[in-house]
Write a structure and sequence with these properties.
Elements lengths: L10 E3 L4 E6 L2 E9 L3 E9 L8 H16 L2 E4 L2 H9 L18
Parallel strand pairs: 4-5
Antiparallel strand pairs: 1-2, 2-3, 3-4
InterPro entries: Acyl_CoA_acyltransferase, Gcn5-rel_NAT, GNAT_YJDJ
Protein name: N-acetyltransferase domain-containing protein
Pfam families: Acetyltransf_CG
Amino acid sequence: MKPELENIPLVKNEEKKRFEIELNSHFAFIDYKETSQQISLIHTEAEPELAGTGAAAAVVEKSLIYIEESGKKLLPFCPYVFAYIKKNPEWKRIVDQRFEGYDKL
């Protein structure tokens, strides 16, 4: 994560069912679904104004930290999140081993 994004807080917007960060009045977010034991990350998006800022990667990393701290397991349905974990395999530790694509991470 770029150093300038480290102190931006992650917001769990339960009304919109998304994890989000705000940068210069623009949002990067990940839609999620949650059960008592798992959090599914469905879709990552950053507003066009945030292109090239690293905001999408930052919201992914912050969300993974949140999921790990919650003690829940991750289901990375979002292709961006899946690719992020492939590039950063240390995060495989929080992926539910029953996830269909687990062996491809």
